[in-house]
Amino acid sequence: MKIRAFFAFMVAFLPSVACVALPLTGLYQTIDDKTNAPKSIVMLYQDGENLAGRIVALYDENGKISETVQNATKTASHVDGAPLVVGLDIIWNMKWNDKDARYSGGKIMDPENGKVYSSLIWQADDALNVRGKIGPLGRTQKWHTVNTDDMPTELKNIDTNNWKPTIRK
User: Fold this and answer.
1) Whole-prediction pTM value?
2) Are 154 and 79 in contact (CB under 8 A)?
3) 8 Å CB contact between 108 and 146
4) How far is residue 92's CA from residue 165's CA, in Å, rounded to a whole number?
5) How far apart are CA 94 and CA 84, in angstroms?
């Protein structure tokens, strides 16, 4: 009788475990496609059931953090309203897809040209794969988790609880 009850519990419980999205929230370093140098730090955060991402720091040409939320100066001139790059939401409405074990259905924006693409995000090996695409054509970047010990103070304890993505088109 106990075995049957345990089996019934496992059958009822396991499907709900399988539906849980991966905890991909946190800080990620992006890499410039042309130079292979660090480009920015993006904070992936939960927006209700969805995953979103905001630029929280930029690197200079020497690989040092040059801008954060406390000293942002560079503007995204090709984005509507020319907002500051640091603080710009570049990922929104990403939904977890159990079948494919990845986030999909949302959008990603290239802050350099202001263009918005469909997006996929999935974990592979020690990197996060972030793909922007139009139909079957696109580009995939590998983003790497950031060791917060090496970050400026304002990036160590970012509170994303009240963040809502500003969606730009």
Assistant:
1) 0.85
2) no
3) no
4) 6
5) 23
Domain positions in the chain are 22-156
pLDDT band at 167 (very low <50, low <70, confident <90, very high): confident
Higher pLDDT, 60 or 10: 60
The CA angle 71-84-91, to the nearest 5 degrees, is 115
pLDDT digits (tens, 9 = 90+) for 57-114: 999 999 999 999 899 999 999 999 999 999 999 999 999 999 999 999 999 999 999 9
Instruction: Tally the C-alpha atoms within 13 A of residue 58's C-alpha that lie toward its C-beta.
Output: 19
For the domain spanning 22-156, the CATH number is 2.40.128.520
83, 119, 123, 86: which is closest to 101 by C-alpha? 123
Q: Is the pLDDT of residue 164 over 90?
A: yes
Q: What is the DSSP string of 25-82?
A: -EEEEEE-TTT-SEEEEEEEEEETTEEEEEEEEEE-TTSSEEEETTS---B-TTSTT-
Give the number of other Cβ atoms within 10 Å of residue 38's Cβ: 19
